[in-house]
Amino acid sequence: MTTTADRILDSAQTLVQVRGYNGFSYADISAELSITKPSIHHHFPTKAALAEALIARYRERFAVARKEVDDDAAGARERLVGYAGLYAETFAQGGRICLCGVFAVDAESLPVQVRQATDAFFADQRQWVAGVLAEAGMPAGRTGAAAEAYLASLEGALLLARAHGQPDGAAGRDRDVVRSVAATLVDALV
Question: Judging by beta carbons within 10 Å of its beta carbon (0-12, 13-18, 19+), is residue 124 exposed, middle or buried?
Fold first, then answer.
């Protein structure tokens, strides 16, 4: 059974991924869910507390998704392509972009604890990508920078896809900006 807190998180996540942290308020969630603002404040006393809970849940879900990529892929190339698919799947959900990518864009206006949680999400991603690159034989001194380049490219591909107005993968896989950028980088890195 879905709890009120889960429904609030679901609504807030969609709003953040489409509008940004500064583009929504508790009034938007209240209207969407037909609940009162005090009910939202009962579960998440501040917008920062809501954002931290969103990031914690997103980080946990991304860890599970990375594990599935690890379990399903045969080698480093396949793992990196599968990982990029997580970003493409996010965009296919109505043009959403990575939750923490949105928070990173809004970083200057975020409370410190939300910036720290956002950075922790990206630290997880850098560590995983760097590990895959190391397993592929990339020298240890290059894996960190290469992982950051790969992540930056995926986040940027989401922005390009949104700018192109590419709705729900309607342009087809050959025009899927995220997968196209990922394939180009994987060829260069592995």
Answer: middle
> What pLDDT digit, counting tens, does each position of 148-175 carry?
999 999 999 998 888 877 554 444 544 5
pLDDT tens readout for residues 25-81:
999 999 999 999 999 999 999 999 999 999 999 999 999 999 999 999 989 999 999
DSSP 71-132: HH-SSHHHHHHHHHHHHHHHHTTTS---HHHHHHHTGGGS-HHHHHHHHHHHHHHHHHHHHH
Residue 164: count other Cβ atoms within 10 Å of its Cβ.
Answer: 11
Determine the residue type at 71: D
The one-letter amino acid at 52: E
